[in-house]
Design brief:
The chain is of the alpha/beta class. Helix content is about 25%, strand content about 20%. The strands form three sheets. The chain has a five-stranded mixed β-sheet with strand order 2-1-5-3-4, with no helix packed on it. Strands 7-6-8-9 form a four-stranded parallel β-sheet, sandwiched between helices. It is elongated, with a radius of gyration of 22 Å. The structure holds zinc ion.
């Protein structure tokens, strides 16, 4: 077999170019292949993890990840919100319900922020890659990571590579990507442990509060896992400021 006969062209739209070597960004890539493979494998061999892709068009028609690339195929891969008017073939089931996350060990501060905004967010600094992929798959959690290899694992259905390194910008990035603004719900998850918070009477937590706090605040929540108590004190004010600055861009 003459390997040069097997060529397909790949173009990656918008944000997907982030994953390509600079010399291949924003252009048509002529890809030579020696054996048949699924489009998912071929796209990942070029550098782009499958969870980042929302739509694949081959020769003008949408295909799924199992499409076997044929010589001469013209492939265009798109990220979410591509605005392309092609009858899409869903690459994965629509995400079910309120976003829930699992984060890799690089993203501890982002985990606390997401919990603060009321999103169920698993984070441990000792998760192994295999565990992250499996829990993400089994619990239908969106895997947020700074590890491209982890995102390429086939178990991962919903996932995203966090581009920003500054934690406030990361929060803004994830908020935009997953449209979180309207779903923000403070005092739902514990920032420390992700446990569910419940409303508690002031008397029940009085002995856990700093001096004076009981006098100025009336609404208290307690974590059902670690018993941490939360109220709308200075911490809450800072959160409101953060939401305004980071999420609403004010
Ligand atoms: Zn807790």
């Amino acid at each position: 077999m003459n390997p040069t006969a097997n060529r397909a062209s790949f173009t990656f739209d918008g944000a997907l170019n982030f994953f390509l070597p600079r010399a291949q960004q924003y252009q048509r890539i002529e890809h030579v292949f020696e054996w048949r493979a699924s489009i998912k494998d071929m796209i990942e061999s070029l550098g782009v993890p499958h969870p980042e892709i929302e739509l694949i068009v081959v020769n003008g028609a949408a295909v799924d990840f199992n499409h076997i690339v044929e010589p001469g195929d013209v492939v265009i891969a798109y990220p979410p919100e591509h605005g392309v008017a092609v009858t899409a073939l869903p690459l994965r089931p629509p995400y079910p319900g309120r976003p829930a996350f699992i984060l890799d060990q690089h993203l501890g501060r982002l985990a606390a922020y997401l919990r603060m905004l009321g999103f169920d967010t698993l984070y441990r600094n000792d998760y192994h890659d295999e565990e992250l992929a499996r829990v993400s798959h089994d619990e239908q959690r969106i895997l947020l990571t700074r590890d491209i290899g982890l995102l390429k694992r086939s178990l991962v259905i919903y996932g995203y590579y966090v581009r920003e390194t500054n934690r406030q910008r990361q929060l803004a990035e994830i908020t935009r990507r997953y449209h979180l603004t309207d779903a923000v719900q403070p005092f739902r998850h514990c920032m420390k442990c992700n446990g569910l918070l419940i409303w508690v009477a002031k008397e029940a937590v009085a002995d856990q509060l700093p001096d004076g706090t009981a006098r100025y605040y009336d609404e208290f929540h307690r974590c059902t896992s670690c018993e941490q108590v939360y109220w709308k004190g200075p911490h809450y004010q800072r959160m409101q400021t953060l939401i305004d600055q980071v999420i609403n861009g004010r």
